[in-house]
């Protein structure tokens, strides 16, 4: 199935960890300050980038080449995929922290006879 140097271990690892990465990005995008349309766009961009990187790694393995012995076109596809996924991840992470909210002024609290006493 594979050539002399080809191994599916790297392609297998890249695919499984890609699923984990995209799931974490989806959770962070949902919890952050990104509008839902922008979050969906960032996740689609990250998915396309990861698909390109995964495709390059898998094609190299099925061609019977060692993981670092890819041809120039596959290196370009791999680099484009990694850069695209990384850029989308950076944009999601930049907006991942929830917006700081100041508590809304509520009704005044009920005063108790012991409020304000320090115990001295």
Automatic annotation (TrEMBL):
The keyword Membrane applies. Keywords: Membrane, Transmembrane, Transmembrane helix. It comes from the Bacteria. Residues 98-120 are annotated as: Disordered. The chain crosses the membrane at residues 12-31, 43-62, 74-94. This is DUF423 domain-containing protein.
């Amino acid at each position: 199935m594979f050539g002399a140097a080809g191994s599916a271990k790297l392609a297998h690892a890249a695919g499984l960890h890609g699923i984990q990465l995209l799931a974490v990005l989806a959770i962070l995008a949902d919890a952050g300050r990104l509008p839902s349309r922008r979050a969906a766009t960032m996740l689609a961009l990250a998915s396309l980038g990861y698909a390109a990187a995964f495709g390059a790694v898998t094609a190299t393995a099925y061609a019977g080449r060692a993981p670092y012995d890819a041809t120039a076109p596959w290196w370009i596809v791999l680099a484009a995929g990694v850069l695209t996924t990384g850029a989308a991840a950076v944009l999601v992470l930049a907006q991942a922290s929830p917006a700081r909210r100041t508590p809304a002024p509520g009704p005044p609290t009920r005063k108790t006879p012991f409020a304000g006493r320090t115990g001295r």
